[in-house]
Specification:
elongated; mainly alpha; 38 residues; 2 helices
Length: 38
């Protein structure tokens, strides 16, 4: 299960750079992931 979070982080990384705050609906969801990524 150590590779599970690593793979998810890479998949979300590019998506956040594409539109981090362009989607207000996903703002809450993205904010949570950003905190976990950092």
């Amino acid at each position: 299960m150590h590779s599970s979070p690593g793979n998810q982080r890479i998949s979300i990384d590019p998506r956040f750079r594409s539109r981090p705050v362009e989607i207000p609906s996903n703002y809450s969801f993205s904010a949570m992931l950003v905190i976990e990524c950092q």
